[in-house]
User: What shape does this take?
Amino acid sequence: MRGESRRVRKANMATPMQRPEGALLRQNEHEELREELEGIAREIRWDIVRMIGLAQSGHPGGSLSCTDILVCLYFHAMNHDPRRPHWPGRDRFVLSKGHAAPALYAVLARSGYFERDELWHLRQLGSILQGHPDRLKTPGVEISTGSLGQGLAAACGMALGLRMDGNPARVYALIGDGESQEGGIWEAAMLAGHHCLGNLTAILDQNGMQIDGSCCEVVGLGDVAAKWRAFGWEVEEVDGHDVVEVCRALDKVASAALPGMVVANTVKGKGVSFMENNVDFHGKAPTPEEMERALKEIEGS
Amino acid sequence: MTVSKETKSTRDGYAAALLELGEKNENVVVLDADLAKSTQTEKFKQRFPERFVDCGVAEQNLMATAAGLAATGKTVYASTFAIFATGRAYDQVRNTIAYSNLDVKICASHGGITVGEDGSSHQALEDIALMRAVPRMKVIVPADYYETREAVKAVAEIEGPVYVRIGRPKVPVLFGEDYRFELGKALILRPGRDVTVLACGFMLHKALEAAEELAAEGLEAEIIDLHTIKPLDREVILASAARTRRVITCEEHSVLGGMGGAVAELLGEEMPTPMRRIGMKDTFGTSGKAEELVEHFGLGSRHIAEVARTLCG
Ligand SMILES: Cc1ncc(C[n+]2csc(CCOP(=O)(O)OP(=O)(O)O)c2C)c(N)n1
Ligand SMILES: [Mg+2]
Assistant: This one.
């Protein structure tokens, strides 16, 4: 259950500042990878539901929609070392849609940044796990987020800083589709395009929903892939719950000279039938009974 | 005045006011930024969909759009969380709404530490300070359901920009159906000769509870509902301070620049008086249950009573 992942082991052994070569996967590796990552994702979903259920507060919908993406990042794409969270050569991750903190916390705990037991204190007074990510309290959190629309710009800043230092590390940022209504997202998109930030990858968790309803009903984003291309980004569109596809897309955009955008089509609340595509579970915790039902469902999946 | 057992949130008062305004005044338009369920503008949206615009997660756009709508003669109520209304969109509020003196009533919910579990990124602790510093802006922090409902209705008739700070939690009902809101008119809810306690919003019922505790010890606190922070009721504050010679301010906000700051500025210039400001002590908030946080940051009634004892001792 808590075995170190392939990529984390690799990160531990890697010479600092050196990115793994040949990131593109060979065909025969796919099924092995799928099995490994889907297994981790199932455990992460279980942790998310339990954390939010115990806290009786939090955002299950957007945490479950981005679970597979975070698993692909932390257990495949990213070069990082949980035992050295400040290692200068590490790839950085910014959770721009900070309300999905439970997904990040579960992934960080499983990677080994802190004890898994901390998860059960989510949102409690004195916990290292705040309602939204706090870089001063949680090992592995690169920057504090929660106010939407700022994380991508922060990631641009990191990418610029790393490039100035000749540091080959990459920066990853996860944004939401509702969040993409913030002007700041597009200001950052323009900056990254202008500076050809090839060391930056953004992932859009396109679950089609925000709080007040579906994004189409509130303020539609139109052809979002075309928009990112128009801003000078290398864009790949994938099924955000197909881990192999997500990994392949992450690897592919990372090899481009332009900033990379992976548009991940996802389902809000993915993995728990009564939360899937249910806007009510954006920011509502399951009742204790609902939690038990959800945990059983994830165990049986 | 004693604190009732019945509780209701101030945001419910906001929703009720919007429905009444919507019926009476065709000119009222409501805007939100993907938080209609939380701010409670959802109820107006259901009843008057043609006069409601959801701007999405785009608070800067929300405020500038509100300004434009107001420029066409609408009375605009613009809502989101206090942290985003005054923080993210500060420049739109200052440079487009206030500078143009437009009829935008910024009714922001989730003010203060009682936001609770969402934590620091969602707890507005500087919003009163920010809004108070903007020329032409009026700043109101109502304490209960009725005061909120009546204040929100009343500001439709007040020209120019207004900031109304609304809360998340249920709070004791202090007033009744007969409550009439008067901008800039502080209310002495409980007279007392030993110390003046000025409180606004969530902290008003805490101050009233503290007064009960102090009365049992023979200390008479004068409790004043300072619902309007700008314009400040100079007369009532100065007269009370002249009687008691001791002043305490209580707010669910930073002690820097908010209601306590406003009162300190007034007293410092007009009538230097021993004073203590109760509020967040230049710090960020944290995640936790609302009442736990109130205790943790020293905002409870026993803290107010303790400060009063020390000041009077
Ligand atoms: C600046 C800002 N405005 C509003 C909010 C409140 N809020 C939290 S989540 C959310 C909706 C986000 O939708 P989306 O980005 O699609 O998230 P997801 O569907 O992935 O949960 C809103 C409006 C916020 N956190 N920050
Ligand atoms: Mg979404």
